[in-house]
Write a structure and sequence with these properties.
This protein is of the alpha+beta class and about 375 residues long.
């Protein structure tokens, strides 16, 4: 019997009782978040795997970079000690795109964590934007990283770490990973402080990650029970406003104490998540099924090809008319296995569902069909999510 592979949340199957969770695992403090920054730069030192002449912006960027460093490569040509032919050749070369096989245009992205201070280092990701084949062995040239407001918040530079590799020869090629993107650990230095209202605000807001009135009410009750009434006020199914001490040291300690409080969150919404491509089904413990009888069978069609030779005339005959030809015949068979019907009693739980479908040897595709039919019939008391 084929075994059905079902992923089930560990806490749901192993323990009948919900375990208390820390508030910090359920909420985020409003305003305490990371910020994305981005910049455009050049990666140099590639071994002939750069953009070449296919991307003119790479050559233009190099020209601009060198110009900022006081190096001119397309300025006016002096006639001193140069003949007319050399002058004409230099002027023609000045209009040609630069050969940048060892250079690549890249986008540089990073995230500044909450409360990051100037001088701290952060990781950066580097990805090609042109036709470069690989960034392996390259180094990012000093690049400004901008926020959404157009201000520079960090400067990035350093050697890339590239895990992907590609190779080709004699018309064949192989590629492992993604050689056109890389990472620079601690490759950027924060240059500007991102202001937050944390220090001056007289309250802070806790946002529950999964909107739920029961969880919001449980957090509010726990805070008010410990610190007194009206300290925490629920605003909706997500947000809770909490009165904070005015002293910054006390405020940090106060939030730390709240984060480490244990509460019993609300029961999760009954949900069944199915990935039809991989045949994976995840069922949480809140799923219930009302009384239903299920019978699921599959029909398989089998076609066997038989290659035979047609010989003209009678066996043993000499000079029989006709010619020998190959003939392909097919034998078609239809198999319909006899599957027993199984019954779901009203109000059964997760383990009963798993046992029932495993008992009849249902495959992942069969499970998906069964759950869809149960949902359509109204017997499945859960939200059905198909990826």
């Amino acid at each position: 019997m084929r075994v059905l592979k079902i992923l089930v949340s560990l806490a749901l199957c192993l323990s009948p009782l919900a375990k208390a969770d820390r508030i910090k695992d359920l909420v985020d403090v409003a305003g305490v978040r990371s910020n994305q920054i981005v910049g455009y730069g050049l990666v140099a030192g590639l071994s002939g795997t750069g953009d070449g002449r296919d991307l003119r912006v790479t050559g233009q960027s190099l020209t601009s970079l060198l110009s900022g460093l006081g190096v001119s490569i397309d300025g006016p040509v002096s006639e001193f000690d140069l003949g007319e032919n050399l002058i004409r050749l230099a002027q023609q070369n000045a209009t040609q795109p630069l050969q940048t096989d060892n250079l690549a245009s890249v986008m540089v992205t990073a995230e500044i964590p909450p409360f990051a201070k100037p001088g701290q280092r952060i990781d950066v990701n580097v990805s090609t934007v042109g036709t470069a084949e690989s960034l392996r062995g390259g180094s990012l040239i000093l690049t400004e990283l901008y926020g959404i407001d157009g201000q520079v918040y960090a400067m990035a530079q350093g050697a890339l770490t590239v895990t992907g590799v590609s190779a080709s020869a004699a018309g064949s090629s192989v590629e492992i990973g993604v050689p056109t993107s890389g990472r620079i650990p601690n490759g950027a230095i924060v240059e500007r402080l991102i202001e937050t209202p944390f220090e001056t605000a007289d309250h802070f807001v806790l946002n529950v990650r999964d909107a739920d009135f029961s969880t919001t009410n449980a957090i509010t009750t726990a805070i008010n029970t410990l610190y007194g009434p009206d300290i925490a006020t629920p605003l909706d199914a997500v947000s809770i406003a909490v009165v904070a001490p005015s002293d910054l040291v006390q405020k940090v300690s106060f939030i730390s104490d709240i984060e480490n409080m244990d509460i019993d969150p609300g029961e999760p919404t009954a949900r069944v998540v199915i990935n039809s491509r991989t045949g994976t089904a995840v069922i949480n413990r809140s799923v219930r099924v009302s009384a239903a009888a299920v019978s699921h069978g599959t029909i398989s069609v089998r076609i066997d090809a038989l290659n035979e030779v047609s010989q003209p005339g009678q066996p043993g005959a000499i000079n029989a008319p006709g010619e020998t030809v190959g003939v392909q015949n097919a034998v078609i068979g239809v198999d319909e296995p006899l599957n027993n019907m199984f019954v779901f009693e009203s109000g059964i739980e997760l383990q009963d569902i798993v046992d029932a479908v495993n008992q009849v040897g249902a495959t992942p595709s069969a499970l998906i069909a069964i759950l869809e039919a149960l949902k359509r019939s109204g017997s499945l008391k859960a939200e059905l999510v198909i990826l």
